[in-house]
């Protein structure tokens, strides 16, 4: 992977970026298990042809710094603990930030936006923590609890004072207990993903199915019912038909605004997108919004 430096940032920042491959041959890490399989395979296959800019890696550098500041190993604590287990001839790997062996507590440090907390958007961390727990249990260790200590990069004390649903502190702890049922469920997930990897690993690039809508962070197209003079939408609807039906019941101050959806990861965050036919065929970065006024909407509905 090539690292560019468009802003000519100091060498120390460039050096802080890891260009190490996520996965060794026939290995798949806990964090890459959470990605779409097309992304996992294309990233590994085209690693030498990928590039990223230092400025786009700034939060990764911040995250690495946070990790190294918080690393401290106690009598029963282990940091940066590597652990693995074979599944169908593939090695599933994990690196745990901190593991309290005595109490079976897995701890991971994260940086995130407050919106992750506001939207209760923890599915990825839940799976990551459970994969670590599964790896520990498979290796004969105890796993009782997962904790994610999160530094909120964009926290505002002012917003916290006005909104009780806003995280009140700039640090948030997401945690959950590990249970037998959860371990069984994550084992099914791991086996499914490894099987998907095996089925697709030798296919040509274009024959690998695209990542699914959750994996490429799809934002669906929505039809916003808007009212003249009001900033926010009156209602958001997922089909043009339902938007037109609703518009018929409203007065002439209302109109429909079509907000085109997008595959957020494909468009902005997937480093292997230039090697992906789904990206080239489906992601259109030029189209953003399209506005339909009340007359046009009535005609369409008629
Ligand atoms: S561009 Fe999108 S579909 Fe293609 S590999 Fe990346 S995330 Fe997956």
Overview of this structure, please?
The protein has 302 residues and is an alpha+beta fold. It folds into 2 domains: 2-6 and 15-207, Lambda Exonuclease, Chain A; 218-301, no CATH class. 36% of the residues lie in helices and 25% in strands. It contains 12 helices and 14 strands. It has helices spanning 11-15, 30-33, 37-45, 58-70, 114-118, 123-138, 157-162, 180-200, 240-248, 264-269, 277-282, 294-301, and strands spanning 2-4, 27-29, 51-53, 77-87, 90-100, 105-112, 145-152, 171-177, 218-219, 222-227, 235-237, 254-259, 262-263, 289-292. The strands form 4 sheets. Strands 2, 4, 5, 6, 7 and 8 form a 6-stranded mixed β-sheet that branches. Strands 11-10-12-14 form a 4-stranded antiparallel β-sheet. Helix 6 packs across helix 8 (180-200) and helix 9 (240-248) packs across helix 12 (294-301). It is globular. Residues 286-302 have low confidence and may be disordered. It binds iron/sulfur cluster. Iron/sulfur cluster is lined by residues 36, 38-39, 42, 210-211, 216, 263, 265-266, 270, 272-273, 276, 278-279. The site of iron/sulfur cluster has 16 residues, from helix 3, helix 10 and helix 11.
Fold blueprint:
Blueprint: E1 2-4, H1 11-15, E2 27-29, H2 30-33, H3 37-45, E3 51-53, H4 58-70, E4 77-87, E5 90-100, E6 105-112, H5 114-118, H6 123-138, E7 145-152, H7 157-162, E8 171-177, H8 180-200, E9 218-219, E10 222-227, E11 235-237, H9 240-248, E12 254-259, E13 262-263, H10 264-269, H11 277-282, E14 289-292, H12 294-301
Parallel strand pairs: 1-3, 2-5, 6-7
Antiparallel strand pairs: 4-5, 5-6, 7-8, 9-13, 10-11, 10-12, 12-14
Helix pairs in contact: 6-8, 9-12
The structure holds iron/sulfur cluster (SF4).
